[in-house]
Amino acid sequence: MQQRPGMALNVVMLGPPGAGKGTQAERFARTHGLSKISTGDILREAVHVGTKLGCAARETMDRGELVGDDVMIGIVGERLDRPDTAPGFVLDGFPRTVPQAVALDDMMRSRGPLVVVDIVVPEDVLMRRLAARRICGSCGINASIEWTSACGSCGGQLVTRTDDEDGVVRERLKVYHRQTRPIVEFYAGRPTFRHIDGNQPPDVVTEALSVAIREASLVPAPVKMTPGAAL
Ligand code: AP5
Fold it and tell me: How many A from CA of 214 to the centre of ligand 1?
């Protein structure tokens, strides 16, 4: 992908539960050689392994609520300090609150702009997608429709994600509207923000995202004026 020379490609995927953030973040990161950072995956892995973080986060996630901002900001801050993120990254699931978005802006000082894409999908479609989703109980990836009984990647058993139960999905959607939707307004005025129609076949969404991110990443950075500098 063409982007401004020397600039990292820092992408944030926003959208409600089931919008396709994880699916599209994985595709975009893979095809562009970037690291995908999914806070949901990091937390599920911690729950699976039984770390202190996992034990603390488990009940919150199973209720469909959000893990505390300080914990999440700490996790993402440490992750973005690793050298693999120097050429850029794709963030899936973070930020999710205004304080997380403010903290991310702080982390981005001197790292180049963020390209923020908001994947939009009607609520009835989200409910249907999450009710139908199966994941691998071993490696955690979303199951493809052609996998009938076992994970096509590692052979693990396909299971329902614990927070995809109907009542929990409804709570996740309420939490999204209350705590996460306000960050769409937080980013909406920026020239590197784009909405994407996520209610289309996955390949069509992938192409639309790719075009939107390419276009947004070419927006010239704002000129920083030094006080007293000659015009
Ligand atoms: P997280 O894992 O981030 O869950 P989420 O935001 O609810 O998103 P999902 O993974 O359900 O959906 P998605 O948009 O990634 O869609 P996907 O591609 O999987 O977070 C889980 C929990 O962790 C949170 O509830 C919270 O407790 C905690 N947490 C995480 N980050 C946090 C943070 N920053 N702060 C605080 N707490 C945090 O697709 C969904 C399904 O749809 C799949 O089956 C897929 O195959 C299918 N699909 C995808 N695209 C399409 C398409 N175009 N057409 C048809 N089907 C599609």
Answer: 24
